[in-house]
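Late entry, evening session. Most of the bench is empty. Finally got around to the prediction I had been postponing all week. Sequence below, unchanged from the version circulated by S.P.
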Amino acid sequence: MGGQDLKLGKMKALILVGGYGTRLRPLTLSKPKPLVEFANKPILLHQIEALVDCGVSHVVLAVSYHADQLEQEMQIEAARLGISITFSHEKEPLGTAGPLALARDVLAKDDEPFFVLNSDVICDFPFREMVEFHKSHGREGTIVVTKVEEPSKYGVVVYDQSTGQINKFVEKPQEFVSNKINAGLYIFKPSILDRIEEKPTSIEKEVFPFQAEEGQLYCYELKGFWMDVGQPADFLTGMCLYLTNLGQKNSNLLSTGPCLVGNVIIDPTAKIGENCRIGPNVTLGPGVVVEDGVCIKRSTVLKGAKIKKHSWLESCIIGWECTVGKWVRMENVCVLGEDVNVKDEIYLNGGKVLPHKSIGASVTEPQIIM
């Protein structure tokens, strides 16, 4: 193996960042979705760092709004990682294929294949294996597929199990044809750009079926976990899968200590009081303060938040700089936007609370609190 084979030094990647992240509100009212921390690291950085690990040197972010905050943060990361990160701005949303045409000058600069990623996907990114598989079949495209329990909710991929060659796609099948779905990770030869115009286009509906008909599309089966973390319930499920995977690998990213149960990630600057129970499946961000007697499970607490004495949280996302009072109970996918204040002895059931609000009365049914 030459160094160049292991390090895919000239490869490029396009990440489909898209629009405003409405599905992850109220968090995205304060921060662009790619910068929202998933397990204490911006969602986008999980992808970019994995790409850099396998030698990608240029990442293009396709955005359909002006994301100044995102651009500033990414320039800092680009310098840290020693790569170039450029932005491709869509005047109108171009769907999942149009952005490839818009970024043609970068993607078609040479004959090297390039990655395309949906920005909300979290998994054990198999980028090296994808490249090897793609080179071995020699056709135009490779898409990663993942197994799901309920295929009828998705579009499924029907393919030759022995070669990986894709025959067709079936949208929400009523009887069983396949339980593999598109996982939102691709590799293409630059020739795919000849199929795409710079206009709103769906790669899934307007490009893939034609590639498959011509025998130009293959799929690689993902091993292990996968989740689209673009909305709160899935964000928490994805966090559990991610932490479980770290546990199986005995990763040093996981924290241990008194009060910690199961797989948890605690930022070194977070402070935890006496007689707490933190975990399983919890992440606490920088500067978080958890007072005595608090129980937190299956939740993420973002930077600077404070959880006061004897509160109980399950399946929650606590936004930046929030304060949760004493003897509070929150459950069932509660999401607090930035700087929300929950008064003492409140019960919150599945509430989504907009930034800078103060909650002084219990919320017994899931709702959006303006």
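Two things to note before I forget:
The chain has a mean pLDDT of 90.
The longest strand covers residues 180-188.
Will write this up properly tomorrow.
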